[in-house]
Amino acid sequence: MDTIFALATARGKAGVAVVRVSGPEAFAAGTALCGALPAPRHSALRRLTDPAGALIDEALVLCFEAGHSFTGEPVVELQMHGSTSVVSYVLSLLGDMPGLRHAEAGEFTRRALENGRLDLTQVEGLADLIDAETEMQRRQAVRVMSGELAQRAEAWRANLLRAAALLEATIDFADEEVPEDVTPEVVDLVSRTLTELRRDERGVKIAERIRHGFEVAIVGAPNVGKSTLLNALAGRDAAITSEIAGTTRDVIEVRMEVDGFPVTFLDTAGLRETDDVVEAIGVARARDRARQADLRVFLAAETDVETSLWQEGDIRFTPKADLVKDEPQSISGRTGQGIDSLLRHLSTVFADRIVGSGLAIRERHRVALASAADALDAALPLIAQGPVTYDIAAEELHRGIRALHMLIGRVDVETVLGEIFSSFCVGK
Questions:
Q1: How far apart are CA 114 and CA 112, in angstroms?
Q2: Residues 259, 262, 267, 273: is their CA dihedral positive or negative?
């Protein structure tokens, strides 16, 4: 492979900038810049010089031998002062060295995958960790990046390999010493694995909500304080407010964090019958987005809630609490009354919903899990018919194993690699 290099920290002026070099010529490149390298996995302060011997900067240099680095290749990291001039000069010197080239987006991580340092699910977890904005997103990404999903897939694979081996032993070595009736053990292995696969498949939808965020629609009649509430939640004037009914015509979105959950609040047009063509379009959009949202906050008297939009987990508040006396379930964007109660309710609902989430967090994961589960669904009736159909059942089990291989990136994943690595920055 070529030796690649890139700035691994953000561009621009900073206290420290890290340049990473990975590949067979990494140590030679490091030696050219700073002379004698420190021992692998030990850091040391070195003077960086150009080919003429002129001082460029002083840097903390760290080296990793092959098999002990993030990429699995020899790696040299230069931790320099974060001057744009210093970084640019060092990168230009590296680019002039034979056998070195600038890394492409995500190329360091791709080499970690190709060299067996990470599996595909860990790569996806790393991408999610880099993108994480909330505590729940961070926790979910760390679990996947740490290899928990791959370990679970490996356990499923081991169960299916054992089951297939028992069936094939019965077929190929009928005269040898094998269990006379393998059906009970095989059925147990396949059934347990199938149950876990279906459970994790169902959990993908909730896990995706943690990745992309929950949507909460604020719903009610015109001029009940929906936009004022949105602004209070956002802590800024995200929506226009006025005493004129029907000010909001389109859906306004504000993204924020609620107890670690990523949440997008939707301010929708006031629900009413209207002859205004533009407002009617806004009302129709409001109803559509409200139905699609994960949860709805109704600002209305109990008798005024539009029941066609109400779903489990929704909450109702009497609006304009600053003007309403002795109303326990009321809220006001002007005074803040009731907002803490709203946020506590949202946190409780979301916490209850993520109980069913698993480690599989992407549509690709769901498809692989569903394919494996479908194969096991097909295998179980064949196993129940006895040795006469064991050969077909074994093939179905191998189909399930291949689906698990796709999950962790062992086979047939080239079509998804480009999309995954395009989300990485250069230097990672």
A1: 6
A2: negative
Q: What is the pLDDT of residue 410?
A: 64
Pick the CATH number of 131-209+360-411 from 2.60.120.580, 1.20.120.530, 2.60.120.260, 1.20.120.430: 1.20.120.430
Q: How many CB atoms lie within 10 A of CB 41?
A: 11
Of 333, 335, 106, 127, residue with least CA distance to 228: 333
Q: Are strands 55-64 and 43-49 parallel, antiparallel or unpaired?
A: antiparallel
Contacts of 53 (CB under 8 A, 6+ apart): none
Task: Tell me the β-bridge partners of 354.
Answer: none
Contacts of residue 333, defined as CB under 8 A and 6 or more positions apart, other chains included, come to 225, 227, 228, 229, 230, 231, 232, 233, 339
Q: Which fold has domain 225-351?
A: Rossmann fold (3.40.50)
Q: What angle do CA 301, 215, 233 make, to 5 degrees?
A: 65
For the chain, domain boundaries: 3-114, 131-209+360-411, 225-351
Q: Global pTM? A: 0.70
CB 319 within 8 A of CB 298: no
Q: Tokens 């292995």 appear where?
A: 189
Q: What is the pLDDT of residue 62?
A: 95
What is 3-114's CATH topology? Gyrase A; domain 2 (3.30.1360)
Residue 389, helix vs strand vs coil: helix
Contact 290, 268 (CB under 8 A): yes
Q: Residues of the chain whose pLDDT is less than 50?
A: 179, 242, 244-246, 412-413, 415-416
Q: What amino acid is encoded at 224 in this protein?
A: V
What are the φ/ψ torsions at residue 88 (nearest 5 degrees)? -60, -40
Residue 275's pLDDT is 66
Contact residues for 374 (Cβ-Cβ < 8 A; gap 6+): none
SS3 256: strand
Contact criterion met (CB below 8 Å) for 230 and 238: yes
d(CA 224, CA 243): 10
Is 2:77 a contact under the CB 8 Å cutoff?
no
The structure tokens listed for 356 are: 């069913």
The span from the CA of 354 to the CA of 143, in Å, is 14
